[in-house]
Amino acid sequence: MIVGMKQVYYKDLGLIEYGDAWQIQEALMKKGLDVKASWYNNAGTETTHTETIDNYLLLCNHAHVYTLGKSGHPENLLVNDTRLQQIGATFYKTNRGGDITYHGPGQLVGYPILDLEQFYTDLGKYMRNLEEVIIQTIAAFGIQAGRLQGATGVWLDADDANKARKICAMGVRSSRWITMHGFALNINADLQYFDNIVPCGISDKKVTSMHKELGQHVDEEEVKQVLKNCFETVFECSLVNDLVTQ
User: Fold this and answer.
1) What is the pLDDT of residue 3?
2) Domain assignment of residue 177, given as a range
3) What's the rounded Cα separation, in Å, for the pair 20 and 24?
4) What angle do CA 159, 219, 188 make, to 5 degrees?
5) Which residues contact 193 (CB under 8 A, 6 or more apart)?
6) Residue partners of 169: CB distance under 8 A and separation at least 6
7) Fewer CB within 10 Å, N- or C-terminus of the chain?
8) Maximum Cα interatomic distance, the chain, rounded to a whole number of Å
9) Residues annotated as part of the active site
10) Alpha-carbon distance 170 to 158, whole Å?
C-alpha cells in the first residue's frame, strides 16, 4: 500500500448466489450510513467525530441470473418462470439504477461500496471512472473500447451505430454518497443468455465478450488482476485484503 493514498478493502467472493452478494453489499452500505448518522446531533448539526467509513471493492461470479433495475421495464424479460427454470436461471428486482441485465459464469462482477465524499461528490464522474477501469482493463488484452453517447457501460465500435456492442454493463445505487452495485464484464460468458432479455432496455444493440472479440478463451484470473491494478490507478487508491466480510 502506498502511504497517503486512500485505502479500499478488496474481497474476492468467488462464486456466490446473487441474493447473498446483495445482502453483503446492503450490510456494508448500512455500516457506512450508520457512521454518517452518528456524526450529527438531534438538531441535525454535524459534530466533531473521528470514526471513518471503510471503502470496499467486492469481485465475484454469479450463477445464471437476470436482474431488473428499479426504473426498469419488466417486459424486457422475454421469458416466463417456467423457461427460467428450464435454463437454470433466477430473477431479481433490485434497487440499482438501469434496466435489465444478465449475470452468469464467465462474467466478472464488481461491487464497489465507496464513500464518494472521500473521493468526489459527483455520480456522473463516478460512472465514467468505473467505465474507465474497464476500458483500461480490456485494452491490456488488445480490445479497444469506449463510451456510447446517452448510455452507460463500456462499448466497442461506439461511433458506428451498426456495429456498436456492449461488453460491460453498469448499474449503481447511491445513498448519502455511499455506493453499491456496480459492473459486469463479459469475459467468457455464454452470450445466448442475453437472447432472453432486451439488455439494458436497448433493443437495437448487441452484446459481446472478450472471448468473442479475441476468438479464444480468456484467463479470468488474469483479467481480475489487471482490473484491480486499473481500479487503483483510476480511483487513486490502494487495495488491501479485506478480512471483514469473511
Assistant:
1) 52
2) 6-241
3) 6
4) 55
5) 64, 87, 89, 102, 104
6) 98, 101, 152, 153, 183, 184, 199, 200
7) C
8) 61
9) 200
10) 16
Of 99, 117, 103, the C-alpha closest to 59 is 103
Q: How many separate domains does the chain show?
A: 1
Neighbours of 178 (CB within 10 A): 22
Tell me the sheet residues that pair with 67.
Answer: 92, 101
Query: Which helix or strand (DSSP H or E) is residue 19 part of?
Result: helix 18-38
User: What Å distances lie between residue 177 and 55, 114, 119, 151, 182, CA to CA?
Assistant: 12, 8, 10, 22, 14
Q: Who has greater pLDDT, 202 or 143?
A: 143
> What CATH code is carried by the domain that includes residue 126?
3.30.930.10
Q: Please answer whether residues 16 and 246 qualify as being in contact, where contact means their C-beta atoms are separated by less than 8 angstroms.
A: no
What does the pLDDT read at residue 42? Answer: 63
Secondary structure E strands in 144-223: 154-156, 165-175, 178-186, 206-207
Q: Is residue 1 part of a domain?
A: no
The 10s digit of each residue's pLDDT in 136-174 is 999 999 999 999 998 999 999 999 988 999 999 999 999
End-to-end C-alpha distance for the chain, whole angstroms: 21
Report yes or no: 82 and 91 within 8 Å, Cβ to Cβ.
no
Does pTM top 0.85 for this prediction?
Answer: yes
Place of cell 465500435: 157
Residue 177 CA to residue 193 CA, distance in Å, equals 33
pLDDT of amino acid 205 = 85
